[in-house]
């Protein structure tokens, strides 16, 4: 019987003819997902000079502006303007006050603002500058250093209003500063006006921060911001939100129930204030101070939110200090989706350069590697390293990403180059 079965099997095998049409075709070669570079330029005028930090690119007409400086070195930060279409350099600005050796320059604390009228507002350490965007020349400037002795030291926090700066100085690491003062500085003549002063409360020392102007329909102007309080003896911190009527010189409301650190960025939109205290998201009615909702992720050990918020299409996009990405409903505070996969959402990236960019249903950000996620569900679509390299300094880390909706091109830096690339499909 066994012999019969073996014989039949041999017949079947011998009768089978090889048909090449039935063979599965080989898998097509996988196309590598790469950025299509339109142009790139060395950020510094000398390509051999190391540059480890750059401003998130900003636009003005046909210009794109960024900056450069070497983190370990003492050099001053340079601001560079390029032609948005060609990458040709238009001007360089580095017209700082010269305070000599040992002067305080906090590069990472530099704050910049593009005014639609055509000026570039810059605050650094104890100086304020108004720069002409067309020429790169200083229009006017203010050396705030002479005021510091009267204030007994302190730390600068700056935001901007239509015509200039809102600058507060107050306690941070100088224990004898007993008050925090908020100044309004006119960009046109650099006139200084004190508009708010907060004194210490018992053992707590104040610091005004995150201040924004809101003009009401009746033309009253609200000043909205926060106080930070520090109890030196026990290193305890607490935070207040406030709304102050600059027209009537009185507080409209204050919220003093924040024991957690407030994010350095407040977001005002359609009569509402959006903010984050550690990992609690809030929507607050500007007129009354009433909390509309409190929401966000419920966790205690997965980091907290320091990066700026991005709000688009009814959603709040934010990333934690551990790199986890969250999308929160702007109307309810509920979490729509989260992405906690390290290979997809990335690592921590703190500061303005890490602000998430939203464009046509996708979000763009970098933790030194560019990542593009689907804004509807948080899934990873693309991940890129820098398309350029500098052999002598191989650490090319992509920084802040800015998208030009007119040309549908994206601009970013990697510490050495300003790069213009096509938006991936």
Task: Give a structural overview.
It is a single chain. With 425 residues, the protein is mainly beta. The chain has 3 helices and 32 strands. The chain has helices at 2-15, 145-151, 342-345; strands spanning 37-42, 58-60, 63-68, 78-83, 89-93, 111-115, 119-124, 127-132, 138-143, 155-161, 164-170, 179-186, 192-199, 204-215, 221-231, 236-245, 250-258, 267-269, 272-277, 280-285, 291-295, 310-312, 315-319, 325-329, 335-339, 357-359, 362-366, 370-374, 380-384, 401-404, 409-413, 417-422. Strands 1-32-31-30 form a 4-stranded antiparallel β-sheet, with no helix packed on it. The protein has a 4-stranded antiparallel β-sheet with strand order 2-3-4-5, with no helix packed on it. It has a 4-stranded antiparallel β-sheet with strand order 6-7-8-9, with no helix packed on it. A hairpin with a 5-residue loop joins strand 28 and strand 29. The chain is globular, with a radius of gyration of 27 Å. The chain starts with a helix and ends with a strand.
Furnish the topology, listing elements before pairings.
Elements (H helix, E strand, L loop, with lengths): L1 H14 L21 E6 L15 E3 L2 E6 L9 E6 L5 E5 L17 E5 L3 E6 L2 E6 L5 E6 L1 H7 L3 E7 L2 E7 L8 E8 L5 E8 L4 E12 L5 E11 L4 E10 L4 E9 L8 E3 L2 E6 L2 E6 L5 E5 L14 E3 L2 E5 L5 E5 L5 E5 L2 H4 L11 E3 L2 E5 L3 E5 L5 E5 L16 E4 L4 E5 L3 E6 L3
Antiparallel strand pairs: 1-32, 2-3, 3-4, 4-5, 6-7, 7-8, 8-9, 10-11, 11-12, 12-13, 14-15, 15-16, 16-17, 18-19, 19-20, 20-21, 22-23, 23-24, 24-25, 26-27, 27-28, 28-29, 30-31, 31-32
């Amino acid at each position: 019987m066994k012999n019969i079965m073996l014989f039949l099997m041999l017949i079947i095998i011998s009768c089978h003819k090889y048909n090449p049409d039935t063979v599965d075709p080989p898998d097509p070669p996988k196309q590598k997902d790469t950025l299509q570079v339109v142009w790139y330029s060395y950020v510094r005028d000398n390509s051999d000079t190391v540059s480890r930090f750059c401003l998130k690119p900003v636009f003005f007409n046909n210009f794109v502006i960024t900056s450069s400086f070497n983190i370990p070195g003492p050099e001053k930060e340079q601001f560079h303007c390029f032609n948005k279409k060609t990458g040709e350099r238009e001007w360089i600005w580095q017209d700082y006050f010269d305070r000599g050796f040992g002067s305080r320059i906090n590069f990472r604390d530099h704050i910049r603002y593009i005014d639609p009228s055509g000026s570039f507002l810059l605050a650094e350490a104890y100086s304020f500058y108004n720069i002409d965007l067309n020429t790169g020349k200083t229009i006017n400037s203010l050396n705030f250093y002479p005021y510091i002795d009267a204030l007994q030291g302190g730390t600068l926090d700056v935001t901007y209003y239509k015509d200039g700066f809102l600058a507060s100085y107050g306690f941070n690491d100088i224990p004898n500063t007993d008050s925090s003062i908020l100044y309004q500085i006119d960009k046109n003549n650099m006139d200084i006006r004190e508009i708010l002063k907060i004194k210490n409360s018992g053992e707590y020392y104040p610091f005004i921060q995150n201040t924004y102007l809101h003009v009401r329909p009746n033309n009253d102007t609200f000043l909205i911001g926060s106080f930070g309080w520090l109890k030196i003896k026990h290193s305890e911190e607490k935070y207040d939100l406030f709304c102050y009527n600059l027209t009537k010189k009185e507080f409209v409301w204050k919220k003093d129930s924040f024991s957690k650190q407030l994010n350095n960025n407040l977001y005002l939109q359609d009569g509402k204030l959006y903010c984050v205290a550690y990992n609690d998201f809030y929507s607050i009615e500007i007129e009354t101070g009433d909390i509309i909702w409190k929401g966000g992720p419920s966790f205690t050990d997965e980091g907290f939110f320091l990066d700026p918020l991005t709000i688009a299409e009814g959603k709040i996009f934010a990333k934690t200090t551990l790199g986890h990405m969250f999308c929160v409903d702007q109307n309810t505070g509920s979490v729509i989706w989260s992405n906690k996969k390290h290979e997809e959402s990335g690592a921590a990236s703190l500061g303005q350069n890490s602000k998430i960019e939203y464009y046509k249903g996708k979000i763009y950000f970098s933790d030194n590697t560019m990542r593009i996620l689907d804004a509807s569900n948080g899934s990873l679509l693309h991940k890129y390293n820098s398309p350029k390299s500098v052999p002598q300094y191989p650490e090319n880390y992509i920084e802040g990403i800015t998208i030009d909706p007119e040309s549908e091109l994206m601009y970013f830096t990697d510490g050495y180059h300003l790069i213009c690339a096509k938006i991936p499909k």
